[in-house]
Known about the structure:
Blueprint: E1 10-19, E2 25-34, E3 46-51, E4 56-57, E5 73-77, E6 83-87, E7 94-98, E8 104-113, E9 119-129, E10 140-145, E11 150-151, E12 167-171, E13 177-181, E14 188-192, E15 198-207, E16 213-223, E17 234-239, E18 244-245, E19 261-265, E20 271-275, E21 282-286, E22 292-301, E23 307-317, E24 328-333, E25 338-339, E26 355-359, E27 365-369, E28 376-380, E29 386-395, E30 401-411, E31 422-427, E32 432-433, E33 449-453, E34 459-463, E35 470-474, E36 480-489, E37 495-505, E38 512-513, E39 516-521, E40 544-548, E41 551-552, E42 560-564, E43 571-572, E44 575-576, E45 578-580, E46 586-591, E47 594-601, E48 606-611, E49 625-635, E50 640-650, E51 659-667, E52 670-685, E53 691-694, E54 704-707, E55 717-723, E56 732-734, E57 740-749, E58 758-772, E59 775-788, E60 799-802, E61 806-812, E62 815-825, E63 831-832, E64 834-837, E65 841-853, E66 859-863, E67 877-879, E68 887-891, E69 896-901, H1 903-908, E70 914-924, E71 930-946, E72 953-955, E73 961-964, E74 971-973, E75 980-982, E76 989-991, E77 998-1000, E78 1007-1009, E79 1016-1018, ...
Parallel strand pairs: 3-9, 10-16, 17-23, 24-30, 31-37, 39-50, 51-71, 71-73, 72-74, 73-75, 74-76, 75-77, 76-78, 77-79, 78-81, 79-82, 80-83, 82-84, 83-85, 84-88, 85-89
Antiparallel strand pairs: 1-2, 4-7, 5-8, 6-7, 8-9, 11-14, 12-15, 13-14, 15-16, 18-21, 19-22, 20-21, 22-23, 25-28, 26-29, 27-28, 29-30, 32-35, 33-36, 34-35, 36-37, 38-41, 40-48, 42-49, 43-44, 45-46, 46-47, 47-48, 49-50, 52-56, 52-58, 53-54, 54-55, 55-57, 57-65, 58-59, 59-60, 60-64, 61-62, 62-63, ...
Amino acid sequence: VYTPDPDFNGTDTFTYTIDDGNGGTDTATVTVTVGAVNDAPIATDDAVGTNEDTPVTVDVLPNDSDPDGDVLTVTAVTQGTNGSVIIDPVSGNPVYTPDPDFNGTDTFTYTIDDGNGGTDTATVTITVGAVNDAPIATDDAVGTNEDTPVTVDVLPNDSDPDGDLLTVTAVTQGTNGTVTIDPVSGNPIYTPDADFNGTDTFTYTIDDGNGGTDTATVTVTVGAVNDAPVAVDDSIGTDEDVPVTVNVLPNDSDPDGDTLTVTAVTQGTNGSVSIDPVSGNPVYTPNADFNGTDTFTYTIDDGNGGTDTATVTVTVGAVNDAPVAVDDSIGTDEDVPVTVNVLPNDSDPDGDTLTVTAVTQGTNGSVAIDPVSGNPVYTPDPDFNGTDTFTYTIDDGNGGTDTATVTVTVGAVNDAPVAVDDAIDTDEDVSVTVDVLPNDSDPDGDTLTVTAVTQGANGSVAIDPVSGNPVYTPDPDFNGTDTFTYTIDDGNGGTDTATVTVTVKEVNDLPEITPATAAVSEEGLVNGMPDNTGTPTDTTDSVTDSGSMSVSDPEGDTLTVSLTEPGVAMTSYGQPITWTGDGTDLLIGSAGGSEVLRISIDQAGNYTVTLSDRVDHPVVGQEDVISFDVDVTVDDGTDSVSAPLTIQLEDDAPKAGNISANIYIGVDSLGIQNLAAGWTNPVFINGTGDVTQQDTDTDGFIDNLLWGSVPSGGSQSGYSLVDNPVFTGGGESVLIGESFKLADFSHNNWPIYSNSSTLDQVTLTIEMDVVVNDIPTTVQFDVLMDHNETPNNGADPRDIITLPAQAVTFSIGGQEYEVRVDGFMDANGQIVSTIRTDEQAVNPFEIMGSIVSTDTLPVVTGSVSNITGGDGSVSNVIWGDTTSPYGNLTVDSSGAYSFQLNRDTKDDLAPGDTITDTFSYSITDEDGDISSATLTITIGGYQSIDGSALADILRGTAADEYLSGYEGNDTLRGRGGDDVLDGGSGSDQLRGGGGNDTLIFDSADSLITGNAGFDTIIAPDNDDLDFSSISNIRNIERIDLTVGNHDILNLSVTDVLTMTDNDNLLEVLGDTSDSVELTNDWHESGNSVTQNGHTFIEYLNTDDSVTLLIEDQVNVTIL
């Protein structure tokens, strides 16, 4: 054994002597080439200082070293917490730049490299010294009035980067003012020079207390102060009603010589004041007729804010005012004089007494002044009527006069009109208009109108609003003589009254009949579907309607009632409907030899309509109504009348019901523990002389398998395997269908001599416990791996290793699982069975496995609702989109469906997951009516609790769980969650807990009880429930028949009392493929109840104390 000296590399020799044991020896020389192995460099921490905001280059290499004397370079740096670091491209040293304004200590690391793969890292500590930042002074501006000092608060807009406290330490003087520093506030105080106004400036200096200063300028605007003007009182005179302009400014003055203007005035007590827009002086206008003294004030303004106010006294001289005469009007009758009192509406501004001094004559009458009253007296000319005028003059006694006009209306005197009696004839029940005016007259030729009438003894009278004549309407069936009076008016107050005599002639009265409407519905036919929908309306669910048409004769004549066949064409099942019995009291409509509709009526008008079969309705896709009239004729032997009996045939439609089906999935918890893996039974080419085997984890398997003879300084090729530690002890959970790592595998692919030991194949043995729902099962794999050692040349540079996939199947609690060794995970994350490994390299891979379920996928089957109604069979069921990401839905046109959950959905489902998938479908009856609904598949995930082939006792927890007993006589107990209990085969006991549980029915079970909560029994497959032999069900609120085709037989009131809680209420869900047979102690209440998303028909016992709700799609028979 040759051992090189420490750190020696190069060529060395030694000799050795061989001896054959018989005295023969020989000596030879061994030349040993010792390859150099690089020694890593050593980086030593550094420290350096710099000032704030100043970069620093750190010469890190002088204190670093390399055992081999290699040249060192800095190849990488990290960033400081408070600064950035780069490598200087010239010097190769790190350059540290502190963050702006940072000071304190920061660190970064650097890495050195010796050029031969050796590296090391050290830390550089930077001490950044604080540097004071000067404050920043910002210019200010302030204003003050003339002669008024002002304090300037200059610091708020100044700042200091270091947050130092700032003070004002110096000021300069203004050009037109002095500046001092206020000893209290520390602010500059500017005092303007006396009487100065305008703009001035000064500067101030701030100091941060650490040697930093700055200077800014303050601009001061000094406002001028104005001197007010002086206003002096004025006085002026004018005459009554004469405005006067007052020139007020000549005696007013302004100390500053400013131009003065009048800017405001007040109003006088007896006059108004305004400012003349031309002269600018006040203008005083006395109130009408005012005389005497008045005052007002005015205000002057110097244009600079100075104002003053003075008073103006106005003397108004008196002037006489003329009186005002106002026109008058008066009326009188023809030939009647009238005195006109004209003065009351006349007036005199000065209050003088007025008199009438002159009048003019009228055109159609004479005028004089009454010597007593002083008023004009107008006398109309004889027989004059109409309008006339005259004028009069008044005098105020002071020279003032005025004239006005009097209008006189002379009214004509009216003569009354003359009304003359009239006579007229009419027939019984026929109104007559009486033209009464032609024989009436008016002396004045006035137009006459009828203004009033009285009522006849046997008829009513009204005035025709169009002709204005009286209209007489005899009472029904009256004949004979009647009278009434009417009054005429000439429009001028003259009236007269006359009498009209009416002779009413006897005639025959028609018989009377009132229309009627009858409605019948196909919903009442066999298989009909009663509902309350239809267009335009749905009024009945019955095939029969009866009623009465009122028939009578005013004279009591004997009547005959008959029917006339309708004139509308109709069909039934495509065959035309023909009628018999036209003109009789019975109409029968038939199609294809079968009666469809019967209509009958008796002589008193009582009718009955009966629908026997469907009538084809024209509107496709909805319940429509066919409406037609049958004429009903009533005859009194002389005359006849008809009225319609309107027949409404209401359509029936199919009913597609919303169907729900549930798939309950027990979700298993999976885990792996006690994993042990390694190599066994290796097979080599060229023997095993160069093979090394190691069991590093003492699990009895080979973990390191090395082979081959290597050149000097080389290493053997080989496999290494490290078990995944998360599975080696107590283990860890895994998800079904997802890959997980079993072991880390490496191929150390080093050069070996071609004639040395080389691996050909080896068995990978894996043992582990697979834990399903806390039940462990030991699984072992023996996977034969193939190894292809390729030559180390360019044409074939990589070795080839094959790990074929392998699976082991096991069963727990009736569930089948497959544990798989899937293969290697390559660099792209793909699982492959073959890998190629690079020469002269360590090639790491992960060996992956998985667990999948191989049991039969759940299937739910059934049939959607297809109640066709009274219009015949469904042509087909039309499905919408049946694709689903969760499974495969198979349907046919009869409505049958089968939904099978797919593997991904089942495997991915977690406890508590709920998936809902909804499919739409529609059905059409022979009448073309359509009904649509949905099939909803709900998939629920429950934590599995599994039994075995033995008699198990399974207990749930507070979670939602799926308890499966499988074989044996099991006891399943739910707890707080909403659980699913399935006993499987055997005589099981299913005991629900506090949640809303679902219990799978099996006739072999000894007890099924829901206990607390809203609990449901599900009938599996197509099983029936015959309650003549079932007595072991307790505390159940619902029986669900929706999945599959089921019959409930012999369900009695006692059965419901036995199986329900204290509320004595049971729901039954199902569809048209299901039926319920009730004993005769039940009766249908006639009520429809909607609750929990379903519509039920209500059934009660004899005293209504027990309630059974059966979904309206289920076929029900009461024995």
